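Entry for the shared binder. Reason: the reviewer on the internal report wants the predicted structure included alongside the sequence.
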Amino acid sequence: MATRRDSADTRNPSMVAALLGRTHPGTVRDAWWLAEFRFRLDAFARAEPDRSVQDIDSSTVEKVFGHPAVGSIARADPVDSPHAWVPVRAALGLSPQPANTDVIADLRATENWPGASVYLPGTGLVYDTATASTRSLDIVDGLELNNVDRLLVAQSDHVDTVLSDGWSTMVRAAQTFITGLGSPGFGEVSALTTVVVPLLQRDGAAFGRSSRFEIESGSVTDAIGAAFISPGTGEPVSFAEALIHESYHNLFNMALDLHDFAEDDSREFYAPWKGTTRPTRAVLHGIVAFSAVMRFWRRIGETNSDWSEYADEVAGRRAAEVLGAATAVASAAALTDLGTELIEAAITDARLTA
């Protein structure tokens, strides 16, 4: 990922509070977006020096360049691979409209794009070459249910290329549940995830998981704002947990793009959620994400009597995992001041729950 990191030899209580789910994410989000937006525009200008966005409506530019896929494009050798920007040009209206045969010929000639459809980042639209028509993606509370974007689909070998029945309903139910918790920051952080790519539900037991229907999820460093989630059993609380988990990974990726948290990433520490050792940065990622999950279940236990016993058990288990990992990192990792502050705060929060 292109770095814009500043010195992290000073502490930042508001950033740490946001990363651990104590408060809203504005401190991290706003600082990151100012730098990221300029980076994407500059990358586009280098790849397309004759294309200008000066005369395009600013809301359109922000919508298109705010999309996770554009972040992926901007970091994928954009100057050497200008064809990757074809859908962005189309979305901005710098190319003829998608139905124009010249644009479609250009898209078809690009080997890296699927033949069946081409996604136009930020528009919620897909051009279907089979029917020579544009169709809309399903959008739920601002989340694009994306199953065709090559730059996102390529990150997983088991993307559900045909959205399953009930997907929209499940995502909507998860979003409603998160909002209903009324917890500081959860609604705002989940809103950072603007694209949800559905994963096929694989047999979790075959991959060493505790349940056949355990949800799988993931996010991508270069596509901040995207999340991959499998449906599990379709139960909204578990799906909401996965969405919160990946949204905090996205938030921490924003922070990592701005600041260093570790001076040396070569040391490895045991990550209880993985059952193996991981580099310092990966363990910090887990501490942030599972601190949020811990807080998520603790809030459920406080607000929903039907879930209280189970919620307390899960919150306690996640707190113990965070406490163990954070204590190990605190004792042996070479952290910046900001990294030390994050770990100390995570330990404090976990002890209150464990």
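Summary line for the report: The chain has two domains: 13-259, 260-354.
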